[in-house]
Design a protein that fits this description.
It is built from six helices and five strands, in the order E-E-E-E-H-E-H-H-H-H-H. The chain is an alpha+beta fold.
Length: 203
């Protein structure tokens, strides 16, 4: 049993807009007209979410100006996921769930490890984490894309409104999408290894 968590930035540009990110292979050309984007909403919020085979945690949103130190990460994200979300998702098996996250500074901090060792010692150690690649983490290669696609059809003009919508969307996130993303996790890692670290998506 595993619970993978990560943080992502959600901006007001993600609502009713087009992303200025293009994934291309060799020889592919993106027309210039498709890159002309107008951005009016620079405000943003950091959103922390965890996923597992039984569903998604609550979305924990903080203002984009907040400095996410280890103490902040523990108090506002990690503690609530361990003490509230895992019991909701796994019941009395919550203590047996392995927690996985990436090597963000707040994740690898000594304070974070001390807290985990005391309150939830079952977590994947840093030496066994995956490479830092957008092809591998389930959020980067799956969940974030679906989340942004949903938000693209919603409207928000304030950070508070943004947070409310993100929380609502995560509360009703499609379990089938989460399971497909987790199903694809191992094959993606194996493909990356076969390609000696090259991109997974490019044929």
């Amino acid at each position: 049993m595993i619970f993978a968590m990560d943080e992502t930035w959600i901006t007001l540009d993600d609502f009713n807009s087009t992303k200025d990110i293009y994934y291309t292979g060799e020889g592919m050309v993106i027309p210039d007209e498709s890159k002309k984007l107008l951005k009016h909403w620079p405000k943003k919020s950091m959103v922390a979410v965890g996923i597992c085979w039984n569903g998604m945690s609550r979305a924990y949103c903080v203002d984009g100006s907040a400095k996410v130190t280890a103490a902040y990460f523990i108090e506002n994200f990690l503690k609530r996921m361990v003490k509230e979300d895992l019991p909701r998702l796994y019941g009395n098996q919550a203590k047996n769930v392995s927690i996985h996250f990436d090597n963000a500074k707040s994740h690898v901090a000594i304070l974070t490890k001390r807290w985990l060792n005391e309150y939830h010692p079952k977590y994947i150690y840093e030496a066994h984490w995956m490479a830092d690649s957008p092809d591998l983490p389930p959020f980067d290669c799956g969940i974030n894309g679906f989340l942004e696609k949903i938000l693209n059809h919603r409207k928000a003009t304030t950070v508070n409104g943004l947070s409310r919508i993100v929380e609502e969307v995560c509360d009703t996130f499609d379990l089938a999408v989460i399971c497909r993303t987790l199903d694809a996790w191992k094959p993606r890692v194996e493909t990356m290894l076969e390609r000696m670290g090259d991109h997974v998506e490019i044929k």
